[in-house]
Amino acid sequence: IELCELQHKSGRHFMFEQPQSSRAWSLNVVVKMAYCHGVAKTTFHQCMYGLEARDKQGTAPAYKPTSVLTHHPALMEELQVRCDGAHRHAQLIGKSACSKAACYPPGLCTAVVKGIHVIRKSLEELDSARRMIR
User: pTM of the full predicted structure?
Assistant: First the structure.
């Protein structure tokens, strides 16, 4: 959160991510950050980004609701897909399954990179406009 605060105060971008059930969301510093100008919390389900787990029935998507604090609309837009209910879920049970689920699935990485590309493009356009004005 200290890094998020520094980024926010400096006009730069940040992303703070934790499982939706994490106690971090109730910490005063996190709640305070969520109320900063332009900051929003969005929630998504990692099953929709390719997170999988293995259970007795085999491999299946793992639900894992996750929340993010950010202040850039492109990241908020990319990180809000919720489960459509079109598949069964494998439970994340045991240390091994939870450790594996701590790694972002490729679809989530792609979504974050897509948001970053939008941010980068808007910064390049802003920089170009400033050069034209000068």
Answer: 0.84
Q: CA 38, CA 86: separation in Å to the nearest integer?
A: 34
> pLDDT class for 105, splitting at 50, 70, 90?
very high
Give the model's pLDDT for residue 100.
81
44 contact partners, CB below 8 Å, separation of at least 6: 65, 66, 67, 68, 79, 80, 81, 82
Q: pLDDT of 48-58, one tens digit each?
A: 999 999 989 99
Give me the half-sphere count of Cα atoms (radius 13 Å) on the Cβ side of residue 61. 17
Torsion sign (Cα): 96, 102, 103, 108? positive
